[in-house]
């Protein structure tokens, strides 16, 4: 199995370990649309865990904007079935076709639904680095998700992005001004965020978080994550749309930046003082716990993993 695909499966498992209890007994496969702002909508998954038979692989959010000339969609889910369900949900709002699809990154739960939008001739957009990882992984994620859901994800045709973005690229899509921000591999190789400057709305994929702690991965870059979060804070977004969880505001991004920077600093200082990870964990819990524990649903379960991950990186 390719190294990049292993990293994606590890990252998916990390999300599962963080959120596995969040899928309630009465959760449903309901692709309802939530209005966010004028012509901006979200389709929020109620599941925060691994792809399972119960959630049918639907464990990430998608967002879309209705423009003068068609729909701009951000992330397509983890199977062709899910992509088609997203397409149906969009049609409850508008009959305009999906003309542009943005894949935030290469983790399979955010782009394997691309095939659902090819028949309408949608232009699929991503960074070159993310596409390279997608192609390296090939059919692997499709087969893995099928096994994990006991076949609920069905048959998925892998459709890669065809338009590759450059750093800081700006485009006008159907009369909508859009800016793309590269995170410099903050969460995974080739992450991009999408910024609507007039509306002051940012679409963050898994780089941005809401009620859960930021998702650190083994193939992400934590210093670049910290830098990216602070750059997003400077934009002063009014609405933040994330890859998992509810819509939030710029205050959450400042909270996340300060948290990750604080853990990074304490781990570095502890490592330099020859402390082991358990000792550093006590320092982190004592110093940061009183402030951040009430702000996240998963502080106690996730902070230990943070320390262990960052300790190994020093």
Automatic annotation (TrEMBL):
The keyword Hydrolase applies. SUPFAM superfamilies: Metallo-hydrolase/oxidoreductase (SSF56281). Keywords: Hydrolase, Signal. Transmembrane segments: none annotated. Belongs to the metallo-beta-lactamase superfamily. Class-B beta-lactamase family. InterPro entries: Metallo-B-lactamas (IPR001279), NDM-1-like (IPR050855), RibonucZ/Hydroxyglut_hydro (IPR036866). It comes from the Bacteria. Pfam families: Lactamase_B. This is MBL fold metallo-hydrolase. SMART domains: Lactamase_B (SM00849). GO terms for biological process: antibiotic catabolic process. Residues 59-244 form the Metallo-beta-lactamase domain. CDD domains: metallo-hydrolase-like_MBL-fold. GO terms for molecular function: hydrolase activity. Coiled coil: none annotated. Residues 1-24 form the signal peptide.
């Amino acid at each position: 199995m390719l190294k990049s695909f292993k990293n994606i499966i590890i990252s998916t498992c990390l999300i599962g370990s963080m959120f596995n209890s969040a899928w309630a007994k009465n959760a449903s496969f309901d692709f309802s649309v939530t209005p966010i702002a004028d012509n901006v909508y979200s389709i929020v998954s109620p599941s925060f865990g691994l792809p399972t038979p119960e959630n049918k692989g639907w464990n990430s959010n998608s967002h879309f904007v209705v423009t003068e000339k068609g729909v701009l969609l951000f992330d397509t889910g983890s199977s062709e079935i899910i992509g088609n369900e997203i397409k149906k949900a969009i049609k409850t709002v508008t009959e305009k076709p999906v003309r542009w699809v943005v894949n935030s990154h290469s983790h399979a739960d955010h782009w394997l639904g691309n095939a659902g939008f090819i028949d309408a001739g949608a232009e699929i957009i991503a960074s070159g680095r993310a596409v390279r990882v997608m192609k390296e992984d090939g059919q692997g994620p499709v087969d893995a998700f099928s096994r994990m859901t006991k076949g609920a994800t069905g048959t998925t045709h892998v459709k890669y992005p065809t338009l590759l973005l450059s750093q800081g690229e700006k485009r006008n899509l159907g009369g909508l001004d859009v800016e793309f921000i590269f995170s410099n591999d903050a969460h995974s190789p080739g992450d991009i965020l999408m910024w609507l400057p007039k509306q002051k709305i940012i679409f963050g994929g898994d780089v941005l978080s809401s009620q859960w702690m930021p998702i650190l991965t083994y193939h992400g870059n934590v210093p670049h994550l910290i830098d990216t979060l602070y750059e997003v804070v400077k934009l002063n977004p009014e609405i933040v749309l994330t890859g998992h969880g509810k819509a939030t505001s710029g205050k959450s991004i400042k909270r996340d930046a300060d948290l990750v920077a604080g853990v990074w600093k304490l781990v570095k200082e502890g490592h330099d003082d020859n402390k082991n990870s358990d000792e550093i964990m006590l320092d982190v819990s004592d110093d940061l716990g009183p402030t951040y524990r009430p702000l996240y649903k998963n502080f106690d379960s996730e902070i230990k993993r943070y320390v262990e991950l960052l300790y190994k990186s020093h």
